[in-house]
Amino acid sequence: MSGSGPGSPKQPEWQNLYEAAVLELDRAVLPNRIQAARAAIEGRIVELRTSQPTEDDSRLENALKILEGLMKIYD
Fold it and tell me: The pTM is what?
């Protein structure tokens, strides 16, 4: 088994939660997944503000935009 799939220990936690939200099909579960992913992403953004910009910056911003769009679809 390679270490690059969803849930891989090499992926950041925010990314695991983001993927779980994006792939969630159960409308009853989706809002909780989105909330967890957003909290993890926002926490990571705060961490990055205290350090130099990384490639994570744009990935985090894009992930938040996608989660916001996903939430609008299911509202």
Answer: 0.72
